[in-house]
């Protein structure tokens, strides 16, 4: 696998990003992390993605956590003691302070909480859409590279057609007619991002199809499907996965753009793009600066990591590129 | 050469058919009637009226027939009438087209006139302070999302300092000014949108130009030019750039979808009345003939641009002009 000091640093940054995404309910929540009353309770855990559903208790979801709870003896609140959807009209457009560290929006919702939870949405869309794109791209690319002739011609022209698609127009047109939801958004974005992945897979599969290891497998009596899926594909995936990191950064940017226009992530779920669109015309600097900074940092992290991977794969590039 | 052009034409044609087909089918299969007035929940007209409306817009016929019918009319540049103001979609699009073209062509021009000299400069002074500073700046620019930068510039340069207009294509009362004043006023209004539209691709192109030129500078042709005693300027501009500029054409073709997509966001932020803004309005009113028309037009623009880039590529690279020998 790919390793090295610079790559480790990039990977660490990505892990921090992933930790923020998964642990968003523990970082910013109106539920306490620990509440000691008659027994011990951990209400914030109930909102963790996936795992939270197992721990959630029905009495938690309906409760207002800000006043002292009955028989409360001690509580530990998250670093940002607000949830992303908690409206407080008294705090409308509150500037950054000790209370709201990044300020509050037009409905008095805490911006820090919304930016932190925006990480979850952004990475979710990025990951799911990249998986969709990988599934389509690898399958089509492998088919084109391995079978050759008619399938190759058709798929290659298909890739060229798809690369020339003004996909953002199409995405907008499609999403404006569909009910807004995060999974749907992720899948639809993924459906537009496979062509370059298919191209990489095709090239790699074609290169490997002539490799000695394939010849050996064939000589040992392996059929075409076995050769392709067990011998060629595992060896050709690394450059494709490196390309997929760039696709992920691109998908996150597309999500932000769609949400900015109001066709992406539905309210009250926060998306960095959606936060920026609410900032437009508000004249409040914190609403513009912080979500944009988060978006830029997240995308840069992933892109830098991808570039480091690529340099490792092809040292010739590191000599040529800045 | 003919075979190459033929293949490009084939791809261009299928791109157009593919885009129209996908958009048409998707818009028809999604829940919710295309026209806002036909939505039963919001209005509640009696079934007979709905039926009459459906047959008036041809929505009761099989999907395949509807597509063929529509594609046939599109081929004659007839996109039907808008469901919002009942004016022909073609007129509405043609009104907005020059604005978007102005924005995108200006962006394309700036990208090429700045990126290639910048790439050449940084390649010639490789690893100097200038090169490093430019590399860092370009990398940062490339990573910044355009709509965020647009908001920041709007807040800083337009609202804060007042150097540029906040939004719109012209100043108030500009219609009464002299042509020169109007033209300058238009340029002044275009400055921020064009910058936001171009800086990302500009950064990418400058880096690409630098990498390509570095490779060209280490080629044998450059070495032989150097051994003949040619100066560094002539080597860089004639010999290195001469072989390095051809891939830009292909990239320029791939740049067009990015520019067209970007102009939706940028036009929205700067209230620029172009095709992107029209699309945005039509999406909110579900003005379905206009959405389809816009998709076709944007696809056509992109496809035409790619075709031009491909043809130029053919003219620029002498190796492709020779009759292809079968390998």
Question: In words, what does this structure look like?
Answer:
The complex is a heterodimer of chains A (322) and B (327). A 3-stranded antiparallel β-sheet of chain A has the order 2-1-3, with no helix packed on it. Chain A folds into 2 domains: 46 residues, no CATH class; 206 residues, MetI-like (MetI-like fold). Chain A has 14 helices and 3 strands. The C terminus of chain A is likely disordered. Chain A has 322 residues and is mainly alpha-helical. In chain B, α1 packs antiparallel against α12, α4 runs parallel beside α12 and α8 packs antiparallel against α9.
Please report the total strand number of chain B as a whole number: 0
Count of spatially separate domains of chain A? 2
- β-strand percent of chain A reads under 5%
Helix content of chain A: 55-70%
Count of runs of 4 or more consecutive helical residues of chain B? 13
Largest interface: A-B, 42 and 57 residues
CATH architecture of the largest domain in chain A: Orthogonal Bundle
Uncertain spans of chain B: none
Q: SSE order of chain B, as H and E? A: HHHHHHHHHHHHH
Distance between the termini of chain B: 15 Å
The total strand number of chain A stands at: 3
List the helices and strands and how they pair.
The complex is a heterodimer of chains A (322) and B (327).
Chain A: H1 5-22, H2 24-27, E1 34-36, E2 40-41, H3 52-55, H4 58-61, E3 74-76, H5 111-147, H6 149-163, H7 167-175, H8 182-191, H9 195-208, H10 212-219, H11 224-261, H12 272-279, H13 285-313, H14 315-320
Antiparallel strand pairs in A: 1-2, 1-3
Helix pairs in contact in A: 1-5, 1-13, 5-6, 5-8, 5-9, 5-11, 5-13, 6-9, 9-11, 10-11, 11-12, 11-13, 12-13
Chain B: H1 2-29, H2 47-56, H3 63-75, H4 89-124, H5 129-143, H6 146-160, H7 179-217, H8 220-227, H9 232-244, H10 246-269, H11 275-285, H12 288-316, H13 318-321
Helix pairs in contact in B: 1-12, 4-7, 4-10, 4-12, 5-7, 6-7, 6-10, 7-9, 7-10, 8-9, 10-11, 10-12, 11-12
């Amino acid at each position: 696998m790919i390793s090295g000091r610079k790559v480790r640093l990039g990977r660490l940054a990505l892990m921090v990003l992933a930790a923020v995404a998964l642990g968003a309910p523990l970082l910013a929540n109106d539920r306490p992390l620990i509440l000691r009353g008659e027994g011990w309770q951990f209400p914030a855990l109930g909102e963790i993605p996936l795992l939270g559903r197992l721990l959630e208790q029905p009495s938690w979801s309906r409760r207002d956590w800000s006043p002292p709870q009955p028989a409360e003896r001690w509580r530990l609140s998250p670093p940002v003691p607000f949830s992303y959807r908690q409206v407080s009209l008294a705090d409308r457009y509150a500037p950054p302070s000790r209370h709201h560290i990044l300020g509050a929006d037009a409905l008095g919702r805490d911006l820090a909480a919304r930016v932190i939870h925006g990480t979850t949405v952004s990475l979710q869309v990025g990951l799911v859409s990249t998986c969709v794109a990988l599934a389509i791209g690898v399958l089509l690319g492998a088919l084109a590279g391995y079978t050759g002739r008619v399938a190759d011609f058709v798929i290659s022209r298909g890739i060229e057609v798809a690369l020339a698609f003004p996909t953002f127009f199409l995405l907008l047109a499609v999403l404006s007619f569909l009910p807004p939801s995060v999974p749907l958004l992720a899948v639809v974005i993924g459906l537009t991002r496979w062509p370059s992945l298919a191209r990489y897979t095709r090239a790699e599969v074609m290169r490997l199809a002539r490799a000695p290891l394939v010849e050996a497998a064939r000589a040992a009596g392996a059929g075409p499907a076995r050769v392709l899926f067990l011998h060629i594909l595992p060896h050709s995936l690394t450059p494709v996965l490196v390309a997929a990191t760039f696709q992920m950064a691109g998908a996150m940017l597309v999500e932000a753009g769609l949400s900015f226009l109001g066709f992406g992530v539905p309210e009250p779920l926060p998306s960095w793009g959606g936060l920026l669109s609410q900032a437009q015309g508000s004249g409040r600097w914190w609403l513009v600066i912080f979500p944009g900074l988060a978006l830029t940092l997240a995308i840069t992290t992933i892109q830098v990591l991808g570039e480091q991977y690529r340099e490792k794969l092809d040292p010739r590039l590191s000599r040529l590129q800045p | 050469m003919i075979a190459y052009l033929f293949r490009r034409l084939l791809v261009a044609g299928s791109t157009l058919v593919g885009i129209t087909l996908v958009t048409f089918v998707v818009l028809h299969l999604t829940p919710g009637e295309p026209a806002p007035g036909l939505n039963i929940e919001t209005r509640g007209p009696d079934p007979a009226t709905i039926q009459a409306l459906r047959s008036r817009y041809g929505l009761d016929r099989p999907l395949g027939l509807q597509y063929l019918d529509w594609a046939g009319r599109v081929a004659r540049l007839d996109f039907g009438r808008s469901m919002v103001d009942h004016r022909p979609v073609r007129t509405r699009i043609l009104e907005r087209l020059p604005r978007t073209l102005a924005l995108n062509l200006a962006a394309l021009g700036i990208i090429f006139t700045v990126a290639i000299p910048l790439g050449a400069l940084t390649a010639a002074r490789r690893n100097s302070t200038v090169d490093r500073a430019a590399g860092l700046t370009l990398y940062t620019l490339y990573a910044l999302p355009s709509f965020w930068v647009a908001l920041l510039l709007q807040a800083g340069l337009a609202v804060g300092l007042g150097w540029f207009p906040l939004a719109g294509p012209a100043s108030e009362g500009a219609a009464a000014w002299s042509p020169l004043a109007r033209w300058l006023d238009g340029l002044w209004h275009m400055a921020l949108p064009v910058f936001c539209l171009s800086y990302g691709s500009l950064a990418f192109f400058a880096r690409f130009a630098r990498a390509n030129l570095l490779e060209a500078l280490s080629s044998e042709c450059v070495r032989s030019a150097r051994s003949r005693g040619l100066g560094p300027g002539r080597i860089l501009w004639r010999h290195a750039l001469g072989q390095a500029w051809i891939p830009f054409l292909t990239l320029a073709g791939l740049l067009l979808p990015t520019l067209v997509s970007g102009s939706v966001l940028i036009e929205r932020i700067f209230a620029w009345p172009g095709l992107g803004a029209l699309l945005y309005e039509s999406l909110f009113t579900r003005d379905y003939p206009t959405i389809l028309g816009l998709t076709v037009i944007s696809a056509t623009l992109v496809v035409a641009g790619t075709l031009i880039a491909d043809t130029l590529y053919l003219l620029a690279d002498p190796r492709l002009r020779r009759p292809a020998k079968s390998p």
